[in-house]
Design a protein that fits this description.
The complex is a heterodimer of chains A (about 190) and B (about 260).
Chain A lengths: L1 H8 L7 H20 L1 H9 L2 H7 L2 H30 L7 H28 L6 H24 L5 H31 L1
Helix pairs in contact in A: 1-5, 2-5, 2-6, 2-7, 3-6, 5-6, 5-8, 6-7, 6-8, 7-8
Chain B lengths: L2 H21 L15 H28 L2 H33 L7 H22 L3 H16 L2 H11 L17 H44 L5 H5 L23
Chain lengths: ~190, ~260
Amino acid sequence: MTVVAMGLATANSALTPEGQAGLLWVALVFAGVTGLARGFVLEEEQGTADLLRLAARPSAALAGKMLFHGALLLASEVILIPLSLLFLGIHVEDWLIFCVGIINGSIGLAVCVTISGALVARAGSRGSLVGVLSLPVLVPMIAMAVSTTKAGLGAAAATIGWQGNVGMLGWTIAIGAAGFWLFDAIWKE
Amino acid sequence: MKTPWALLLIWLFMAVIIVAAYQAPPAEGFSKPEAARIIFFHVPAAISCIVFFGIGAWYAIRVLRLKLPLDDIKSVAALEMGTLMCVLATVTGSIFAYMQWNTPWNWDPRQTTIVAQLLIYAAYFALRGSIPDDRRRMVLSAGYAVFAMATVPFLMIVIPRVFATLHPNNTLISSAGLDPTYKKIFWSAFVGYMAIGLAIMRVRIQAGHLLYRLETERGLEDSGHIAATHRIYGADDLPLVDPAAGVAGSEGHRTG
């Protein structure tokens, strides 16, 4: 829906690669935040979280959810990205930077939203709070992801694209390490 | 030192800094050199904000490890000061941008990242406000504070160096950056900001202690479990309830 709406809105105008990179990441983040937020929240709502606590160590539960969310996001991107390329008229100049950037960003997105989802699931209020908590934290990653995609579309130098990729990797490691460290306390609370 | 005297000294110190800022020569290299003196107030606020966020995260880590409400009060107080410093840095930065670049906001990476930082800590306070249970609020918000701190190096250090920015980089550590007069006033202003922030934080912690004590004692008195205060309080420097003396045993026990 997001991609079709964007395609319709920009049907008669030529988008710059900068605009295309931004719109592509709007679609990816939208798909990530709305879909992935259901992970731990759904477990709490269905009452299966207690069973999960008994069956698995906290780190194993978090790693499992991250892997599941990452796979789900990458699977949805298999449909979303070709549609975006088609509807937004995106022409990729450097496929390697473009694909590495998308995979890198998707992993970061899955890690961040999974941890935010765990926090929200343990809080009383649910739903929109996932977006409130995860979107500001995602800003640095989205900024680096957009610059990487711009490089992939030929609107920035390849060096900037690789710098963005390294930055995203560092960000994901930092967020993931913090997440694993604090998840134990959150999950048992 | 008693808090009112400390506050008076800090107030005098900051008055001297303000006078010194106006006595400093206009900064060459800026489009309006006279207005560049705002860096004595803008940049120290930005650095103080990072320091207070760091202090808040440190106490949040202690909350996750020890689960003491006292650490939660300290963490919140530090994060509130960090947010206040962040607002000050944003406002003074906008004034500075209007003076030098003729627009208060131009989506420069540093302007964007400081807004993201403000949003992250606004989300922290939104999370706190959404959890009614005291203990769960303490642990979950501490978790988010640690999570939020992991983004600070990327927002404040990495992104402004990856993207083209109007802000100069490495001015404070480079020998070709600030001249010696500016350096002295600048770092004195930073010390002043930190002293003001720590003094306000101290008052906020005292108020937090008081509120917590009142709520805990009222709750325990109602349920007839006053002695349990000893187990859950955990403060080194606070008088606790003496079960024998009743609710207000100000000379009572202390716990480690």
